[in-house]
Structures are given as C-alpha cells and as structure tokens.
C-alpha cells in the first residue's frame, strides 16, 4: 500500500512541476514582428463636412495604425519588469507633458495616456502608457488597469518615418 502512495505522490508532484514550468515559459518575453491588430469596436468613424471619415476612439495600438508616421518593428508581452529589461539600451523615458511630431502625426503625451492625431483622426492611447525615446524610434510600454497576471504589459517598439 505504501508503494502506491509513493507512486501517486510522485505523479502529483510531477504534474505540479510541469504546470509551473509551462506557466513560467509562457510568462517570458515574446517578441514578434509585424503590425498590431485593432479591435473592431475600438474606433468610431465620423464624417466631416467634406465627406471624409475621421477616426476617433481609444486604441492602445494607435501608433501601429499610422504607418506613414511610425512603423512597428517589435511587440512583446510579459511582466513589466521583464519588458523594462528589454528596452533598447539607449532609451530615455519621455516625461509628460510632451508633444512629438513625426511626419504629419502628432503624439501628445499627458500623464499616463496619449493622444495621436493626424488630420481629423484622433486616437487615444489609454492609461497606463509610458513612452521612451531612442535613436530612430520610440517605445510604447502599456500596463492595462487590471490584475497583472490576467493582463500582461505590452511593449511596442516603433521606427520613426522621416518626412
């Protein structure tokens, strides 16, 4: 009987260790290349007097939606601590309030959020957002306002487009 108890204990401990290792592997920094995918409900298009559609709304991926101004090169998700360790080596935090101009886009940073505008388009990057500047680009680091284990932080690195 003791033999079966020991075997069952080894199986349960083995499953626990495997589950913990899988969870640790998933929480590591993952970098992907490409463009962000906007949520369909995040934007509202309104028509101005000339019949053009202006885009307005909350969009954590707002900078990815404007390739004429910035091109997303990397996206990573994970803990805030892990993402901060993967910032470009010469990145300096942009202290709000700040207004940055890239091509025909304006990035207005105030507090822990930002407004991206181009023409009639206005997209708000919701809190909690932090920005860093480095040679040739910027970094957007977002920590959603929810429990950290359920909503990991997101880091997007952008290369700026020269006018």
From the structure above, extract its key features.
single chain, 163 residues, alpha+beta, 2 helices, elongated
Quick structural summary:
This protein has helices at residues 2-26, 80-85, and strands at residues 30-32, 43-47, 53-58, 70-78, 92-93, 98-102, 105-110, 113-118, 121-125, 129-134, 137-142, 153-160.
Note the run of SSEs as H and E: HEEEEHEEEEEEEE
Give the overall shape, derived from the CA principal axes.
elongated
What is the helix fraction of residues, given as a range? Answer: 10-25%
Major β-sheet, in short? 6 strands, antiparallel
How many beta-strand elements? 12
Q: Class by helix and strand content?
A: alpha+beta
How would you describe this structure to a colleague?
The chain is of the alpha+beta class and 163 residues long. It has two helices and twelve strands, in the order αββββαββββββββ. The protein has helices at residues 2-26, 80-85, and strands spanning 30-32, 43-47, 53-58, 70-78, 92-93, 98-102, 105-110, 113-118, 121-125, 129-134, 137-142, 153-160. The protein has a six-stranded antiparallel sheet with strand order 1-4-12-11-10-5.
Topology overview:
Layout: H1 2-26, E1 30-32, E2 43-47, E3 53-58, E4 70-78, H2 80-85, E5 92-93, E6 98-102, E7 105-110, E8 113-118, E9 121-125, E10 129-134, E11 137-142, E12 153-160
Parallel strand pairs: 3-9
Antiparallel strand pairs: 1-4, 2-3, 4-12, 5-10, 6-7, 7-8, 8-9, 10-11, 11-12
